[in-house]
Amino acid sequence: MIRDQDTLDQLLATLSRFVRERLVPNEERIAGDDSIPPAIVAEMKELGLFGLSIPEEYGGLGLTMEEEVLCAFEIGQTAPAFRSIFGTNNGIGSQGIVMDGTEEQKRRYLPRLATGEMIASFALTEPDAGSDAASLRTTARRDGDHYVVNGTKRFITNAPEASIFTLMARTDPRDKGAGGISAFIVEADSPGLSLGRIDRKMGQQGAHTCDVILDDVRVPAANIIGGVEGRGFKTAMKVLDRGRLHISATCVGISERLIRDSVRYAAERVQFGKPIGEFQLVQAMLADSRTEAYAARCMVLDAARRKDQGLNVSTEAACCKLFASEAVGRIADRAVQIHGGAGYMADHGIERFYRDVRLFRIYEGTTQIQQLVIARNMLKDMA
Ligand code: COS
């Protein structure tokens, strides 16, 4: 749903200019430095990028899902590490509070997340609980008006920058499945909370992940999201449904960027006496990429509109994540191929995207988990 086309068009034009003029020229630098310059982060705050999806009454832009994916199509046109720094405040870090938090929790945290004063991370994954999220082992034992939390969270995006964690822990040790899990807001400066070393990754340099270690961390009972035990797994799943749409939109943006770079190269690069874009085998690669990016864009927009209508889009979000993340992998592969030797060389930046996009098929649910979600929902609908 688009609330006001003119306002949205202005926002999209601003984002497009910001990406083109400020982010694209810094892609290589952030990959080399493994950090985003503070001046760029300050500009992102100024533009409201940390609060795109946070409701207006808490200081955000309160974008609808359709508006948000249109923004992600623009923001996706550059290195994904830029998106990562404000991505968790709009997605998996904040949405648990937006969707299921109490009024007090929303008022306490959302305004500072919307401005970027605080960064929120999502802490679900553990060393022994990845795809099987419901098997997580971090415990939260009630002790008076606090919970005592113990465990280790792994690969947590933005953990080194985070002020708060939306953290899933088991409050009912007798229930080993989803029903025993609760979601907490854990402040990063809580005594007993420490961070592992920053992970070295295949790509997306500039975006940071690390372990979060909880050793008898006392969390106020008032920080259980929604104030009720046992609902944390469902909160996490709802957050991921939404996050998967945003990631899919980012995949579309990157696909379109890589196609543009590939078309330009194919038009300029001359071999056998003419631009390589005139050869049908190169044209086939361009056409396949364009077709897949277009399909992904249509899927994401359709699913976002359905979500804005209040429909359950668990299946559609999984379809989008599955298709768009696999498609951007193929598109990045073809982009390397079209660029030939230049595509493999770091100076042209194409191989960096090839490495960066590999993550999309893994995080916020692997391709295989999306397949499982889709097929399970199909069988449930039939029953
Ligand atoms: N929205 C709301 N509730 C949901 C839901 C959704 N999308 N998906 C599941 N639930 C509910 C179920 O309805 C069920 O509730 P009831 O017990 O009341 O019926 C409960 O949650 C447990 O669901 P289910 O039995 O399907 O859980 P499973 O353990 O079988 O696991 C998958 C489900 C595999 C889908 C889940 O573990 C998953 O998404 N794994 C991937 C995790 C992931 O994406 N990790 C990335 C880390 S964050 S970057």
TrEMBL record:
Family: Belongs to the acyl-CoA dehydrogenase family.
Organism: Paramagnetospirillum caucaseum
Residue intervals of the Acyl-CoA dehydrogenase/oxidase C-terminal domain: 230-379
PROSITE patterns (UniProt xref): ACYL_COA_DH_1, ACYL_COA_DH_2
Cofactor(s) required, per the database record: FAD
GO biological process: branched-chain amino acid catabolic process
Domain of life of the native organism: Bacteria
Lineage: Bacteria, Pseudomonadati, Pseudomonadota, Alphaproteobacteria, Rhodospirillales
Protein name (database record): Acyl-CoA dehydrogenase
Pathway: Amino-acid degradation; L-valine degradation
InterPro entries attached to this UniProt entry: Acyl-CoA_DH_CS, Acyl-CoA_Oxase/DH_mid-dom, Acyl-CoA_Oxase/DH_mid-dom_sf, AcylCo_DH-like_C, AcylCo_DH/oxidase_C, AcylCoA_DH/ox_N, AcylCoA_DH/ox_N_sf, AcylCoA_DH/oxidase_NM_dom_sf
A GO molecular function held by the record: flavin adenine dinucleotide binding
Gene3D superfamilies: Acyl-CoA dehydrogenase/oxidase, N-terminal domain (1.10.540.10), Butyryl-CoA Dehydrogenase, subunit A, domain 2 (2.40.110.10), Butyryl-CoA Dehydrogenase, subunit A, domain 3 (1.20.140.10)
Domain Acyl-CoA oxidase/dehydrogenase middle: 121-217
Keywords: Branched-chain amino acid catabolism, FAD, Flavoprotein, Oxidoreductase
Domain Acyl-CoA dehydrogenase/oxidase N-terminal: 7-117
